[in-house]
Amino acid sequence: MKNQQTQQPALKEIIKWLTGITKPVHKPLFISTCFRVFNLIADFTLFAVAGGGVAALIAGSAQVSTVFTALIIASAVKAVAFYFEQFSGHFVAFKALELLRTYAFSKLWPKAPAIVSHSHSGDVLASLTRDVDRIEVFYAHTFAPLVSAVIAPLAILNFIGFYWGWELAIVPLICLLLSIFVLPFFGTKQAFAATQETLVLRRKLAHHVTDSVAGVAEVVGYNQETNRLAEMTDFEDKVAQRANFPRVMVAFRRAVNAALMLISVTGIVFVGLHYGHTVVLVAALATGALRLFEGPRGVEDALGYLDHSIAAARRLWGISNSPLKVTDGDETYAPNTAPTVTWKDVDYHYLDANGNPVKHALENVNITAPAGKRTVILGVSGSGKSTAAQLLMRFDDPETGAIKLDGKDVRNYTLDSLRHNVVLVTQKNQHLDADIATNLRLGAPQATDTQLWEALETVGLKAEVMEMPQQLSTSVGAGGSQLSGGQSQRLALARALLMQPKVLVLDEFSANLNSALEKEIRTHLAEKYAGITIIEITHRLESVAHADQIILIDEGRVVEAGSVAELLAINGQVKRLLERDVRE
């Protein structure tokens, strides 16, 4: 396994990459931006009509009906502009979500499941959910506000300057230019850096919490509760500390924007009266100026979204463009009989977030699982036994050595054909939110109902399903939530058997089964599937009974190997473990 790192792209490359994916939303985004510009202009106009109208009524130069009619028209225009801005904006948002998630899934699918096993806890899920959401925010809440914040206020002030005189526009124009082109960049670089550090710390905190929850047994067993809580608190304090500076800068910019707005209003009043403009006009423009800075306020929010969006885009780019861990072979694997499976001089390391080796999972492993026999790979959690199974399935490839089927390297075969004939069943099973029949047919779409019932009988689930009101049409719920742990595992095993595998790999498949039911299933497998090669991975000593071969793995190395009789005769670790298990 090579240490391959994907170089992070420059901002220009990220933007080009994103715009390439989301090209279908560019036209709707332009339309949404136009309506936002109209909405901001209508907003200014509505306030101007209200302020000028009140002044005109006080001066007696306008009728109440005229003012109310103008207000109704201005309100209607603003309402229409606001509606279409929101409608087109939400279309852009949801379409962008669709495009980004479809793209990400299309890139991740060929890399699965290696991309999951080589990422930190939750990295892939975070990129497909939170990161995509943050990128979508760029389209829905960043581009349009930034563009309209420049166009709408400048258009209004240009109209005022050309139509009534630049003396009325000069003060708000200066304030507006400061608000748009100077203030947003004050402290922005430091705020971006602090935000980046905050996101990294939040990510570490999420990993820490996930690992603590997943490994709660180990945490409690080694009395590490206090240490883990202290580490989590330390992460929380660092997150709060680094997140403080961006918040302070946002508050500062908003306060300055409010001050610039008041200066603009005051400037219009003083300049307007000084140059002899009518009170009605001055009141209208001064009141409208209260909404002139609505666009620049959007810039503040947009900048807050922007750094998160760019950081999320970099993460999604990194995962989407990470190199393939496993490539397809050229040959289709279609054996007529069960093969002999061999691990020959296999070495394998796990990697850290930077791609550096951190743990020797397997070291010079040599195992032979004879054709048509049952081989049990025994070992404690973390010993490397599951890693051996994952390499056989080509979730990844070994650094050195090879895994062979009847003497031929598994890397020669296409992944689909290999995984159709070598089937893995684990204690963590995935089920669709569909009925039992649909879940059973995932690997064998053409299977008949009769074959489904036969598979369910083999795994001891037929009687339970027959008692369900809808039998095979019974929904299993999201992720199999309507099934017990034992039912979920047996349903996964039945699904695997329907694929008619030549090699069946059982990785802790009986973790949620009682001993009697486990024994019954083993008896059925021995009777109905006697010709296939079974490789069972377990830490449960009762599973070794009647095994043709036992392999004991510890810290990534094969410690003992042989039949039950052979291992009992040499008085080694397996014998001591079995004798201790009998005593207990």
From TrEMBL:
Keyword ATP-binding tagged: yes
Subcellular location: Cell membrane
Topology in the lipid bilayer: Multi-pass membrane protein
GO cellular component: plasma membrane
GO MF entries: ABC-type oligopeptide transporter activity; ATP binding; ATP hydrolysis activity
Chain ranges passing through the membrane: 37-58, 64-84, 137-157, 163-186, 255-275
SUPFAM superfamilies: ABC transporter transmembrane region, P-loop containing nucleoside triphosphate hydrolases
Domain ABC transmembrane type-1: 70-274
Keyword field: ATP-binding, Membrane, Nucleotide-binding, Transmembrane, Transmembrane helix
Domain ABC transporter residues, every copy: 341-580
Protein name, UniProt field: ABC transporter, ATP-binding protein
Organism of derivation: Gleimia coleocanis DSM 15436
